[in-house]
Design brief:
The chain is of the alpha+beta class. The chain has a domain of 99 residues. The protein contains 14 helices and 15 strands. It has a six-stranded antiparallel sheet, sandwiched between helices. Strands 1-2-3-4 form a four-stranded antiparallel sheet. A three-stranded antiparallel sheet has the order 7-9-8. Strand 10 and strand 11 form a beta hairpin. The longest helix has 20 residues. It is globular, with a radius of gyration of 21 Å. The N and C termini lie far apart (61 Å).
Length: 462
């Protein structure tokens, strides 16, 4: 009976989505993408990645009987199908991380990793070459609790924790198979990277966050979208019909942002076609497609190609921070997927956090505009979960901010957050950066990071 019901559901999906089978191709695309990052990015076993990411999702139980994935280690590709059709492929490159592979040419397909900078980075070393074992037993206990698994699902599946205090790592731990050099997908923490690249453009006088963006498709005198600014996009208040990217439920198979991520060759080009459903700046909806429109702005300002973006990011961001060869995904138009596609070791994510902790100054040199973090963490109106401009924020009186503060997270904390429990948390009052990566579902995600932060602050004392 379940097989019959699932088959009927599958036919309904294929008939009712944006196009025949689009919802199912979104599903196979998501499987290919996450498996690609886990298997070829972090060296995990594919069956473990699937079990950790997809098995806990109730909606997948309706179709996983027909899903099949193939791992091509020679070409570093994942191919996923449903009942032999609805194929999606994702491929991994050292320079580009994982990206969806579509039919037709792939511009800049052979992007080489950017040249490493000559000379030392501006950011002083945050640790030596060995894992930092905490000397304080309270910090060891904090890590023990962060890695402990509950007796029953949902499990935490913690992979890495790095704690930086006063610009030095004071504690870190990794799961089996992970270490200080293992790249890990940050998922939506990539939006914080987009925030930094935008800040660099603003600091260099190349971008005005309050000036309307130039999109030819929106240039009509009566088109309400023509008033959209980078600030509107960064604060998720574009008013465009982009769907909601804040969850991975069954209805997300139809979300325009997910169609963009897994089906479209030109992600930003697709986002530009979406109609307005609300006046610009009047409604908050967390949607990845907003960030892809910003990624197109970054690409064009850097020179117009994927190689230009890599060179710009290497020169202006990675080299000063000492971040070595991060892998950023690109679409077929050469636009970086600044919404959710970047892999880097946990220590490198912590280095990025120090840029924000120090308000955009690295080694005495200002990279981001003065006051950029005050701007980025100022709460966005109507963002019920507590969102700023490219960061989640505990400032303000949103439901999310109140809940996190009730759990013990400081009021001045702000963070980048990935969909399954990836966190880059910055706490200025404690001079702390806390990085936590895992594959966690349910309320344990936010409760776990709040507990970890509370434990660390208690260990540090007043």
């Amino acid at each position: 009976m379940r097989m019959l019901l699932s088959g009927l559901l599958t036919m309904a999906l294929a008939a009712c989505a944006n196009g025949p089978g689009d919802a199912l191709r979104v599903a196979t695309g998501a499987v290919s993408h996450f498996l690609c990052s886990g298997v070829f990015g972090s060296g995990e076993r594919p069956e473990q990645v699937y079990a950790d990411v997809f098995a806990p999702l109730g909606a997948m139980s309706l179709i996983d009987w027909g899903l099949r994935y193939e791992v091509n280690r020679n070409d570093r590709e994942i191919r996923t199908t449903f009942l032999g059709g609805f194929e999606s492929r994702a491929g991994h490159g050292d320079a580009t991380g994982c990206r969806m592979l579509h039919a037709g040419p792939m511009p800049d397909d052979q992007i080489e990793p950017a040249e490493e900078s000559q000379g030392p980075p501006l950011l002083p070393a945050i640790a030596g070459g060995q894992m930092v074992e905490p000397s304080d037993p309270r910090l060891r206990a904090a890590l023990d609790r962060a890695f402990a698994e509950p007796a029953k699902p949902p499990f935490r599946r913690t992979k890495a924790v790095v704690v930086v205090h006063e610009d030095r790592i004071i504690a870190e731990r990794y799961a089996d198979g992970f270490g200080i050099d293992t790249p890990i997908a940050g998922n939506s923490i990539a939006k914080s990277v987009t925030n930094a690249l935008l800040g660099i453009l603003v600091h260099q006088g190349l971008l005005d966050m309050q000036a309307p963006v130039h999109v030819t498709a929106w240039s009509g005198t009566t088109d309400p979208r023509r008033a959209t600014t980078p600030d509107d996009l960064l604060r998720m208040r574009s008013g465009l019909d982009l769907g909601d990217s804040s969850s991975a439920g069954f209805d997300s198979l139809w979300a325009p942002s997910n169609r963009m991520l897994f089906l479209e060759r030109d992600m930003a080009g697709y986002a530009e076609t979406r109609p307005a459903t609300a006046a610009v700046g009047t409604r908050w909806v967390y949607a990845d497609a907003n960030t892809l429109l910003l990624s197109r702005i970054i690409r064009d300002a850097a020179g117009g190609t994927a190689a230009d973006v890599r060179a710009f990011a290497q020169r202006e961001l990675w080299a000063p921070l000492g971040i070595r060869r991060p892998a950023i995904g690109f679409d077929s138009a050469g636009t970086p997927n600044g919404a959710n596609s970047m892999l880097a070791p946990a220590r490198d994510w912590a280095r990025l956090g120090l840029l924000f902790l120090n308000d955009g100054v690295v080694g005495g040199r200002r990279i981001l505009p003065a006051g950029w973090m005050a701007y980025s963490t100022a709460p966005t109106p109507d963002a019920r979960i507590g969102y700023g401009a490219g960061f989640w924020t505990n400032q303000g009186d949103s439901y999310g901010a109140r809940h996190r503060k009730d759990l013990g997270m400081p009021a001045d904390a702000y963070f980048g957050r990935g969909i399954f429990g990836q966190f880059l948390v910055i706490i200025p009052s404690a001079r702390l950066v806390v990085v936590r990566f895992g594959t966690t579902h349910g309320n344990q995600e936010i409760e776990g990071i709040s507990t970890l932060i509370g434990d660390v602050i208690a260990a540090l004392g007043p």
